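// run 5 | inverse folding | seed 20
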């Protein structure tokens, strides 16, 4: 995982969770290791802009922040809204997609419907933010397990955005040499 301060220098400083946030997460069934590993859940204040990006505002509501390799994902539990810092991530928890040990012995990539279920499962899986990119990002996964509520979305969106137009090459009958 990346360090918030090193990788996202232009981003405002993110705070630590307050005791009330930790208590709420624990009451919802989130184990403590999921709150602190692989990187601590952080706190931000702001709003979700129309483009899906996070707009920091010190007077805005609370958002939980999660570091991804090239992005930061923000989640506002009260509304279920998700936002990204720079739009590079298509899912929360992307690092597990390429972790071969997750597929060993018949293992599957778990696709959760929301961040709370993902946290309850100790971040062992992903939450898709951008279904338009999901097919290209997940096409090489050998096995996935999808939350039942996501099955219609998964079935409709897990197709290539477009297929090439196909034409037939006819054999040319050339002159004999």
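// decoded
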């Amino acid at each position: 995982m990346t360090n918030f301060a090193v990788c996202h220098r232009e981003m405002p400083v993110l705070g630590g969770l307050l005791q009330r946030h930790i208590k709420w997460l624990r009451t919802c069934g989130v184990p403590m290791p999921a709150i602190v590993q692989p990187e601590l859940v952080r706190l931000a204040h702001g709003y979700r802009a129309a483009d899906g990006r996070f707009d920091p505002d010190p007077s805005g509501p609370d958002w939980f922040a999660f570091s991804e390799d090239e992005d930061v994902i923000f989640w506002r539990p009260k509304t279920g809204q998700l936002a990204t810092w720079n739009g590079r991530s298509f899912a929360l928890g992307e690092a597990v997609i390429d972790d071969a040990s997750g597929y060993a012995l018949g293992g599957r990539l778990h696709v959760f419907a929301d961040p709370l279920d993902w946290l309850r499962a100790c971040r062992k899986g992903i939450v898709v933010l951008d279904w338009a990119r999901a097919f290209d990002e997940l096409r090489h996964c050998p096995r996935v397990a999808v939350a039942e509520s996501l099955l219609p979305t998964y079935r409709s969106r897990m197709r290539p955005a477009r297929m090439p137009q196909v034409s037939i090459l006819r054999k040319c009958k050339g002159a004999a040499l």
